[in-house]
Specification:
Radius of gyration: 24 Å
Shape: elongated
Order of helices and strands: EEEHEEHEHHHEHEHEEHEHEEHEH
Strand content: 25-35%
Strand order of the largest sheet: 6-7-8-3-9-10
Number of domains: 2
Number of strands: 14
Structural class: alpha/beta
Distance between the termini: 28 Å
CATH superfamily of the largest domain: P-loop containing nucleotide triphosphate hydrolases
CATH class of the largest domain: Alpha Beta
Helix content: 25-40%
Length: 308
């Protein structure tokens, strides 16, 4: 659905994007992670045919950005991080205006506008002025506008930027629904927890270069070479810590807020027998699980915080 080959954008001698190679299949939800100024927006603007690259190639639904711009715009929905609104327009007028730009006419236009309003839960605001909407509502309206022509591919640039916690949760819920509809989505963010449970693939970009690219689980494995367990017992915590420290597969044991943090030796992946030994030695377990590494930790481990 999306493929880039050595995609590059330069401003003078400065690389905003340097030889980007991406490949997204139908139904992929790709989290594009990076600090501000890393090249995320530049990539999306090129894929949306709003910006020409310096060199390299990109295809969206098998259409080249050079020769198939009109075809790409029919199948892509692009939501920028900030977009203009018209002061004197009502919400429904705003959507109808853009629907007409996509040549959606008559009863079909009214139907699709009503449907996208319902989808983003803004039906009750259909007659409100666009300028009266909160930031969260404005973002949902922007998503509704993006969906008017039922695009196969969505390019969402920082869709939760500037939102309060409730509005971020609502936006994340909408993105999950879009994923369930089989849309191919490229979504950028620098707020990492937003993407953790949405994406099946992630890319980390820094200073215009893609430094990490792959399935979420594979990226996590790159960050941590050893397994860390979280263990809790009903009592005798100090004894349990000493017992674990003496086990052959354990590298270290620390205590953090009542939880034993057990780091296994590098290369050790089977830890079931540890639980059996604890139980056989009279310890009652209330927790025994592998510590999950998150996107935020991965991002901090794999990047240096440099922008172009």
């Amino acid at each position: 659905m999306i493929e880039t080959v050595r995609l590059t954008k330069m401003y003078g001698q400065l690389y905003a994007l340097k030889e980007l190679n991406l490949s997204l299949r139908e139904g992929d939800v790709y989290g594009f992670i990076g600090p501000n100024g890393a090249g995320k927006t530049t990539t999306m603007r090129i894929l949306a045919t709003l910006l020409n690259p310096s060199y390299g190639e990109a295809y969206v639904c098998n259409h080249s950005i050079y020769t198939g711009a009109k075809d790409i715009r029919r199948v892509v929905g692009y939501m920028p991080d900030f977009f203009g609104v018209y002061d004197d327009m009502k919400v429904i007028e705003y959507l109808e205006f853009f629907a007409s730009a996509y040549r959606i006419t008559g009863s079909a236009r009214k139907k699709i506008c009503d449907e996208v309003l319902e989808y983003v839960d803004l039906t009750y605001k259909r007659d409100a002025l666009v300028t009266s909407l909160s930031r969260g509502m404005t973002q949902r309206l922007g998503l509704a506008r993006t969906l008017l022509h039922n695009p196969q591919v969505l390019l969402l640039d920082e869709p939760a930027s500037g939102l309060d916690p409730r509005a971020r949760i609502e936006m994340r819920s909408l993105l999950k629904q879009l994923r369930g509809m089989g849309k191919t989505i490229l979504v950028s963010s620098h707020i990492l927890p937003e993407l953790a449970d949405i994406c099946n693939k992630i890319g980390i970009i820094e200073q215009g270069q893609l430094i990490v690219n792959g399935d979420v689980n594979e990226v996590m494995k790159q960050v941590r070479s050893e397994i860390v367990l979280n263990v809790m017992v009903t009592d005798r915590q100090r004894e349990a810590a000493d017992f674990l420290q003496n086990q052959p597969e354990v590298a270290s044991v620390d205590e953090r807020q009542g939880v034993l943090i057990v780091k296994l030796l590098e290369g050790v992946h089977a830890y079931g027998p540890l639980a059996s030994r604890l139980i056989n030695n009279g310890f009652e377990l209330t927790m025994f699980k592998e510590d999950e590494i998150n996107l935020e930790t991965a991002f901090m481990e794999l990047t240096k915080g440099i922008t172009s």
